[in-house]
């Protein structure tokens, strides 16, 4: 298959994913570009000749473009395209494609869009804390200890501050009372039980970390949220505000190098160390995943009851959609806690608290 065919397939598949995840606007936007993108512009050539994997499991080229367009619309740089954006009525795919091609063909905006294509999408989906937080509750319950958090693929660290959010999980109301971020996904299964986790420390890593105190980085975080999902836009804006109170420490680092540095093999008593990640592990090279697994096995083998080690992962699970899994040492056996879609709109809790 040619590069161009792979790119067009990536746009078509992204349209299906957006529709499934409740963004008819972004679905229509990407659908309209499947056949209409051409090489008459700098951005068009850059996209259609993309050398790496263009799909959602690779470089996410469609979302690079839609993020660029959303950023320029929010900035007031694309007034004609903005007339088709939410909250206006859902436009036809052809009308969207016409407006996008005009934007790509303009010398100034086309250059800005081409520059944005260099950025990998970083949505830093706050909704994932809705499934990670009850997972952390399991660790707190079974260890009886406060937690030290370590996140892979942390982006801006918005999921490193889960105790600052409020949650309604079934009938359970948890987290910080009165928080401007309320996560209330649909919930099925047994209710959450056990103590709310006490967070002793938090630290993350990302190859391209974003700084919530930097206006340009905040713009990128907002741009990658789909424009017809007003609740997600309001949620990430509120989460950014909470993160700015005490910005999480995010290291610029390769994930495997970082795990080998921060997850020492010698346990430290008095806290449960928790390595976690959400829809990130699939993007790591096989060699990096193997190294991370080897370090966790090595460190887990030396874990003790007063210095346990946990590995909490919300990732695609054997082609069956995302699942939340937990390994907890001493012991280290893997168990499935819950399943949900990538934006955690519904949670099916499978583990018995």
How would you describe this protein?
It is a single chain. The chain has 353 residues and is α/β, with parallel strands linked by helices. The protein has 2 domains: 3-116, no CATH class; 126-349, 3-Layer(aba) Sandwich (Rossmann fold), CATH 3.40.50. 41% of the residues lie in helices and 18% in strands. It has 12 helices and 12 strands. It has helices at 3-20, 24-36, 42-48, 61-74, 79-82, 93-105, 107-116, 129-143, 215-223, 230-245, 255-262, 286-301, and strands spanning 147-152, 166-169, 172-175, 182-183, 186-188, 199-206, 250-252, 272-278, 309-316, 322-329, 334-340, 346-349. The strands form 2 sheets. Strands 5-12-11-10-9-8-1-6-7 form a 9-stranded mixed β-sheet, with helices on both faces. A 3-stranded mixed β-sheet has the order 3-2-4, with no helix packed on it. Helix 2 packs across helix 6 (93-105) and helix 11 (255-262) runs parallel beside helix 12. The longest helix has 18 residues, at 3-20. The model has no long low-confidence stretch (mean pLDDT 95).
């Amino acid at each position: 298959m040619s590069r161009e065919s792979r790119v067009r397939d990536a746009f078509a598949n992204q349209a299906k994913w957006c529709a499934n995840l409740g963004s008819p606007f972004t679905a229509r936007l990407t659908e309209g570009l499947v056949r209409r993108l051409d090489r008459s512009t700098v951005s068009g050539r850059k996209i259609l000749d993309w050398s790496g994997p263009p799909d959602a499991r690779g470089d996410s080229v469609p979302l690079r473009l839609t993020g660029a367009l959303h950023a320029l619309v929010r900035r007031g740089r694309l007034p004609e395209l903005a007339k088709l954006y939410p909250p206006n009525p859902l436009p036809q795919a052809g009308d969207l494609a016409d407006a996008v091609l005009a934007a790509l063909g303009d010398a100034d905006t086309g250059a800005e869009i081409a520059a944005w294509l260099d950025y990998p999408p970083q949505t830093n989906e706050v909704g994932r804390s809705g499934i990670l937080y009850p997972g952390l509750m399991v660790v707190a319950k079974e260890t009886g200890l406060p937690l030290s958090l370590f996140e892979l693929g942390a982006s801006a660290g918005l999921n490193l501050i889960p105790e600052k959010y409020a949650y309604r999980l079934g009938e359970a109301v948890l987290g910080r009372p009165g928080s401007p971020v309320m996560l209330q996904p649909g919930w099925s299964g047994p209710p959450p039980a056990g103590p709310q986790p006490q967070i002793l420390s938090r630290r993350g890593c990302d190859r391209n970390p974003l700084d919530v105190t930097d206006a340009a980085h905040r713009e990128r975080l907002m741009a990658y949220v789909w424009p017809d999902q007003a609740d997600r836009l309001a949620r990430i804006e509120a989460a950014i505000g909470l993160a700015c109170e005490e910005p999480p420490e995010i290291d610029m680092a390769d994930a495997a190098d970082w795990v080998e540095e921060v997850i020492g093999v010698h346990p430290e008593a008095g806290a449960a160390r928790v390595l976690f990640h959400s829809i990130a592990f699939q993007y790591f090279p096989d060699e990096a995943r193997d190294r991370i697994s080897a370090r966790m096995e090595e460190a887990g083998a030396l874990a003790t009851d007063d210095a346990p080690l946990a590995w909490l992962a919300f990732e695609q699970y054997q082609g069956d959609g995302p699942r939340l899994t937990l390994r907890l040492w001493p012991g280290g056996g893997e168990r499935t806690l819950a399943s949900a879609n990538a934006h955690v709109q519904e949670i099916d809790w499978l583990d018995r608290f």
